[in-house]
């Protein structure tokens, strides 16, 4: 996992155990997302996604004691290569997330960049959060790759 030299910018890189078309589809699947978008003490997540340029998303991460609501708007939707979306959470200023899906044959790599933070401590929390999310996402893909590969490739 990479860490950005800029303290107001988060960068996470992680190899994924599936081809990028499957990884892109899984990242944009609200049903699957509830299993892996769970950093820290989050035990489940719910998502409503309108994955198109100008479309919005609403993500609710639930812990035992709180709900964390995240919203945003898709700026770039370029399957299976890239997503760019605004990110607003916890009364913090709006930031920007870019997720690039790099092709490595039967595997892929995610490069997630989150920028526009105004406080270093918030960026540091997101560095850890996105690191955990991508770790959980890779494990989710490993568990579900056969099922996902069949559904994506038979469409």
- CATH class designation: Alpha Beta
* Proportion of helical residues: 25-40%
Mean pLDDT metric: 91
CATH fold category name: Alpha-D-Glucose-1,6-Bisphosphate, Chain A, domain 4
Share in β-strands? 35-45%
Low-confidence stretches: 148-155
| Main beta sheet strand tally, sense and closure | 7 strands, antiparallel
Shape: globular
CA radius of gyration is: 15 Å
Provide the structure class.
alpha+beta
Distance between the termini: 33 Å
Based on DSSP secondary structure assignment, what is the total number of beta strands? Answer: 7
CATH architecture annotation name: 2-Layer Sandwich
Count of alpha and pi helical runs = 3
Return the string of H and E elements: EHHEEEEEEH
Tally of domains = 1
**Name of the CATH superfamily:** START domain
Q: Could you give the order of strands across the largest sheet?
A: 1-7-6-5-4-3-2
Would you give an account of this structure?
This protein is α+β, with helices and mostly antiparallel strands and 155 residues long. It has one domain: 2-Layer Sandwich (Alpha-D-Glucose-1,6-Bisphosphate, Chain A, domain 4). The protein has 3 helices and 7 strands, in the order E-H-H-E-E-E-E-E-E-H. The protein has helices at residues 20-27, 30-36, 120-153, and strands spanning 9-16, 44-49, 56-62, 67-78, 82-89, 95-104, 107-115. The chain has a 7-stranded antiparallel β-sheet. Helix 1 crosses helix 3 and helix 2 (30-36) crosses helix 3 (120-153). The chain starts with 8 loop residues before the first strand and ends with a helix. Residues 148-155 have low confidence and may be disordered.
């Amino acid at each position: 996992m990479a860490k950005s030299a800029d303290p107001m910018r988060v960068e996470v890189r992680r190899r994924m155990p599936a081809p990028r078309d499957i990884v892109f589809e899984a990242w944009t699947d609200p049903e699957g997302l509830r299993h892996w978008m769970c950093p820290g003490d989050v035990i489940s997540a719910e998502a409503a996604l309108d994955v198109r340029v100008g479309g919005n998303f609403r993500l609710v991460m639930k812990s035992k004691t709180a709900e964390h609501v995240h919203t945003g708007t898709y700026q770039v939707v370029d399957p299976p290569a890239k997503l760019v979306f605004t990110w607003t959470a916890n009364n913090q200023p709006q930031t920007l997330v870019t997720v690039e899906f790099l092709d490595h044959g039967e595997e892929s790599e995610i490069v997630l960049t989150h920028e526009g933070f105004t406080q270093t401590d918030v960026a540091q929390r997101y560095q850890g959060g996105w690191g955990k999310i991508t770790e959980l996402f890779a494990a989710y893909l490993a568990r579900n790759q056969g099922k996902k590969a069949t559904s994506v490739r038979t469409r």
